[in-house]
Amino acid sequence: QVQLVESGGGLVQTGGSLRLSCAASGLTISNYAMGWFRQAPGMDRDFVAAVSWIGGRPYYADSVKGRFTISRDNAKNTLYLQMNNLKPEDTAVYYCAAGIPASGSYGRSRAYDYWGQGTQVTVSS
Questions:
Q1: Which residues on neighbouring strands pair with residue 34, listed in sequence order?
Q2: For residue 41, what are the contacts with CB-CB under 8 A and spacing of at least 6?
Q3: Which helix (H) or strand (E) holds 13?
Q4: pLDDT at res. 67
Q5: 8 Å CB contact between 14 and 88
Q6: Is CB count within 10 Å lower at the N or C end of the chain?
Q7: Among 97, 100, 1, which residue's Cα sits nearest to residue 45?
Q8: Distance in Å from the first CA to the final CA of the chain
Q9: Which helix (H) or strand (E) holds 60?
Q10: pLDDT at residue 54 greater than cutoff 90
């Protein structure tokens, strides 16, 4: 049984930092593309970042480029999202996902097969 468990969310002030973790079991993350998505109340689930399963190439949404860094520790089977210079508009539930997206599809939530339960990130102004 595949499980993705996010942690590390919380309340932070504008300009602060958080590091999200996604611990995987039942799959080997190095065999999958891994992604982070977020969903604010009343909004669609939006792409944040992803890392390819071949070569570990990172992909980022324009809104987080230069502030967020995605990484993975294959030995720990864990995905991370380092979030710096946080803004109130980053407030959302953050989800990690695993899948094998086709080329050019890393930002599409439907390209991912497995999802975690989410962790809340709240950035106060």
A1: 51, 98
A2: none
A3: strand 10-13
A4: 98
A5: yes
A6: N
A7: 97
A8: 40
A9: strand 58-60
A10: no
* Model pLDDT for residues 67-76, shown as the tens digit of each residue: 999 999 999 9
At residue 23, does pLDDT exceed 90? yes
Computed over every residue of the chain, the mean pLDDT equals 96
- For residue 72, give the nearest of 109, 100, 102, 98 by alpha carbon: 98
Nearest-angstrom CA–CA distance, 54 and 29: 11
What size, in residues, is the chain?
125
Provide the 3-class DSSP secondary structure of residue 36.
strand
| 53: confidence class by pLDDT, cuts 50, 70, 90 | confident
Which segments within the chain are labelled E, that is strand? 3-7, 10-13, 18-25, 33-39, 45-51, 58-60, 68-73, 78-83, 92-99, 112-115, 119-124
